[in-house]
Write a structure and sequence with these properties.
The chain is an all-alpha fold. The radius of gyration is 18 Å and the shape is globular.
Protein backbone atom coordinates (compact mmCIF):
# COMPACT_ATOMS: atom_id res chain seq x y z
CA UNK A 1 0.00 0.00 0.00
CA UNK A 2 1.30 3.43 -0.90
CA UNK A 3 0.32 4.94 2.47
CA UNK A 4 2.61 2.54 4.32
CA UNK A 5 5.50 3.47 2.05
CA UNK A 6 4.85 7.16 2.69
CA UNK A 7 4.59 6.54 6.43
CA UNK A 8 7.89 4.67 6.35
CA UNK A 9 9.37 7.95 5.08
CA UNK A 10 7.82 9.83 8.04
CA UNK A 11 4.97 11.39 6.03
CA UNK A 12 2.65 12.68 8.76
CA UNK A 13 -0.26 13.46 6.45
CA UNK A 14 -0.21 9.86 5.12
CA UNK A 15 -0.17 8.62 8.71
CA UNK A 16 -3.15 10.83 9.54
CA UNK A 17 -5.09 9.40 6.60
CA UNK A 18 -4.28 5.85 7.70
CA UNK A 19 -5.14 6.63 11.33
CA UNK A 20 -8.54 8.01 10.36
CA UNK A 21 -9.20 5.08 8.03
CA UNK A 22 -8.47 2.50 10.74
CA UNK A 23 -9.67 4.16 13.94
CA UNK A 24 -13.30 2.97 13.75
CA UNK A 25 -12.39 -0.49 12.47
CA UNK A 26 -9.87 -0.99 15.27
CA UNK A 27 -12.31 0.41 17.79
CA UNK A 28 -14.98 -2.13 16.78
CA UNK A 29 -12.42 -4.92 16.84
CA UNK A 30 -11.07 -3.99 20.26
CA UNK A 31 -14.53 -3.52 21.74
CA UNK A 32 -14.92 -7.28 21.37
CA UNK A 33 -11.90 -7.73 23.63
CA UNK A 34 -12.84 -5.24 26.33
CA UNK A 35 -15.41 -2.52 26.80
CA UNK A 36 -13.43 0.17 28.53
CA UNK A 37 -13.39 3.04 26.02
CA UNK A 38 -10.27 4.59 27.54
CA UNK A 39 -8.40 1.32 27.23
CA UNK A 40 -9.62 0.81 23.65
CA UNK A 41 -8.35 4.25 22.67
CA UNK A 42 -5.05 3.58 24.42
CA UNK A 43 -4.56 0.31 22.53
CA UNK A 44 -5.45 1.99 19.22
CA UNK A 45 -2.89 4.70 19.89
CA UNK A 46 -0.25 2.12 20.84
CA UNK A 47 -1.09 0.16 17.69
CA UNK A 48 -0.80 3.18 15.44
CA UNK A 49 2.44 4.19 17.16
CA UNK A 50 3.89 0.78 16.26
CA UNK A 51 2.64 1.25 12.68
CA UNK A 52 4.39 4.63 12.57
CA UNK A 53 7.62 3.18 13.95
CA UNK A 54 7.61 -0.09 11.99
CA UNK A 55 6.11 0.93 8.63
CA UNK A 56 9.43 0.25 6.96
CA UNK A 57 9.26 -3.39 8.15
CA UNK A 58 5.96 -4.10 6.37
CA UNK A 59 6.92 -6.78 3.83
CA UNK A 60 3.69 -7.26 1.82
CA UNK A 61 3.41 -10.88 3.01
CA UNK A 62 -0.16 -10.11 4.09
CA UNK A 63 -2.69 -7.37 3.50
CA UNK A 64 -2.01 -4.07 5.24
CA UNK A 65 -5.22 -4.51 7.25
CA UNK A 66 -4.06 -7.94 8.46
CA UNK A 67 -0.72 -6.46 9.49
CA UNK A 68 -2.38 -3.61 11.39
CA UNK A 69 -4.96 -5.89 13.06
CA UNK A 70 -2.14 -8.25 14.08
CA UNK A 71 -0.39 -5.35 15.78
CA UNK A 72 -3.66 -4.37 17.49
CA UNK A 73 -4.17 -7.96 18.62
CA UNK A 74 -0.72 -8.08 20.22
CA UNK A 75 -1.24 -4.67 21.84
CA UNK A 76 -4.62 -5.85 23.19
CA UNK A 77 -3.02 -8.94 24.71
CA UNK A 78 -0.36 -6.76 26.30
CA UNK A 79 -2.99 -4.36 27.67
CA UNK A 80 -5.07 -7.19 29.11
CA UNK A 81 -2.02 -8.68 30.81
CA UNK A 82 -1.00 -5.32 32.29
CA UNK A 83 -4.44 -4.09 33.31
CA UNK A 84 -5.84 -4.68 36.79
CA UNK A 85 -8.85 -2.58 35.99
CA UNK A 86 -12.27 -4.27 35.67
CA UNK A 87 -13.88 -4.32 32.24
CA UNK A 88 -16.78 -1.95 31.65
CA UNK A 89 -20.12 -3.63 31.03
CA UNK A 90 -21.62 -0.95 28.83
CA UNK A 91 -24.43 -2.08 26.58
CA UNK A 92 -25.65 1.31 25.36
CA UNK A 93 -27.17 0.56 21.98
CA UNK A 94 -30.27 2.52 21.13
CA UNK A 95 -32.87 1.46 18.63
CA UNK A 96 -33.50 4.23 16.15
CA UNK A 97 -36.57 2.80 14.44
CA UNK A 98 -39.42 4.57 16.22
CA UNK A 99 -42.06 2.76 14.17
CA UNK A 100 -41.63 -0.40 16.23
CA UNK A 101 -43.89 -1.13 19.13
CA UNK A 102 -42.29 -0.66 22.56
CA UNK A 103 -42.54 -4.42 23.21
CA UNK A 104 -40.60 -5.15 20.00
CA UNK A 105 -37.97 -2.56 20.88
CA UNK A 106 -37.60 -4.02 24.35
CA UNK A 107 -37.40 -7.55 22.98
CA UNK A 108 -34.66 -6.56 20.50
CA UNK A 109 -32.75 -4.69 23.17
CA UNK A 110 -32.94 -7.68 25.51
CA UNK A 111 -31.82 -10.05 22.74
CA UNK A 112 -28.93 -7.73 21.88
CA UNK A 113 -27.89 -7.60 25.53
CA UNK A 114 -28.16 -11.37 25.80
CA UNK A 115 -25.95 -11.88 22.75
CA UNK A 116 -23.45 -9.27 23.93
CA UNK A 117 -23.32 -10.90 27.34
CA UNK A 118 -22.77 -14.31 25.79
CA UNK A 119 -19.96 -12.95 23.60
CA UNK A 120 -18.34 -11.23 26.60
CA UNK A 121 -18.35 -14.49 28.54
CA UNK A 122 -16.27 -16.27 25.88
CA UNK A 123 -12.55 -16.60 26.52
CA UNK A 124 -10.56 -13.81 24.86
CA UNK A 125 -9.08 -16.02 22.11
CA UNK A 126 -12.52 -17.30 21.08
CA UNK A 127 -14.10 -13.84 21.28
CA UNK A 128 -11.43 -12.46 18.93
CA UNK A 129 -12.01 -15.20 16.34
CA UNK A 130 -15.78 -14.64 16.42
CA UNK A 131 -15.33 -10.87 16.16
CA UNK A 132 -12.91 -11.04 13.24
CA UNK A 133 -15.05 -13.57 11.38
CA UNK A 134 -18.50 -12.04 11.81
CA UNK A 135 -17.84 -8.35 12.35
CA UNK A 136 -14.72 -7.82 10.22
CA UNK A 137 -15.34 -10.38 7.43
CA UNK A 138 -11.96 -12.06 7.81
CA UNK A 139 -11.40 -15.65 6.73
CA UNK A 140 -9.78 -18.28 8.90
CA UNK A 141 -6.49 -18.12 6.98
CA UNK A 142 -6.25 -14.35 7.44
CA UNK A 143 -7.09 -14.65 11.14
CA UNK A 144 -4.46 -17.37 11.56
CA UNK A 145 -1.84 -15.10 9.99
CA UNK A 146 -2.93 -12.20 12.14
CA UNK A 147 -2.80 -14.01 15.47
CA UNK A 148 0.13 -16.17 14.43
CA UNK A 149 -1.35 -19.62 14.88
CA UNK A 150 -2.36 -22.54 12.63
CA UNK A 151 -5.64 -22.34 10.70
CA UNK A 152 -6.88 -25.44 12.53
CA UNK A 153 -6.45 -23.60 15.84
CA UNK A 154 -8.67 -20.81 14.53
CA UNK A 155 -11.25 -23.37 13.40
CA UNK A 156 -11.14 -25.10 16.78
CA UNK A 157 -11.60 -21.82 18.63
CA UNK A 158 -14.55 -20.97 16.40
CA UNK A 159 -16.08 -24.40 16.93
CA UNK A 160 -15.86 -24.08 20.72
CA UNK A 161 -17.10 -20.48 20.65
CA UNK A 162 -20.16 -21.43 18.60
CA UNK A 163 -20.87 -24.36 20.88
CA UNK A 164 -20.62 -22.19 24.00
CA UNK A 165 -22.77 -19.46 22.44
CA UNK A 166 -25.39 -22.00 21.37
CA UNK A 167 -25.50 -23.51 24.86
CA UNK A 168 -25.64 -20.13 26.62
CA UNK A 169 -28.34 -18.75 24.34
CA UNK A 170 -30.46 -21.88 24.31
CA UNK A 171 -30.24 -22.12 28.10
CA UNK A 172 -31.42 -18.53 28.45
CA UNK A 173 -34.11 -18.90 25.81
CA UNK A 174 -35.37 -22.07 27.53
CA UNK A 175 -35.60 -20.21 30.86
CA UNK A 176 -37.63 -17.34 29.41
CA UNK A 177 -40.11 -19.43 27.41
Amino acid sequence: MELIQLISRADRSAFEVLYRAYFQRLSRFLSSAFHNSRLIEEVINETMFVVWQKADTYNHASKVSTWIFAIAYRQALKAINQSDEPVDNEVGQELDNEENEPEQQLSRLQLGQLIQGALKSLPFEQRIVVSLTYFHDMGYQEIAEMINCPVNTVKTRMFHARLKLKNMLSLHMGVTE
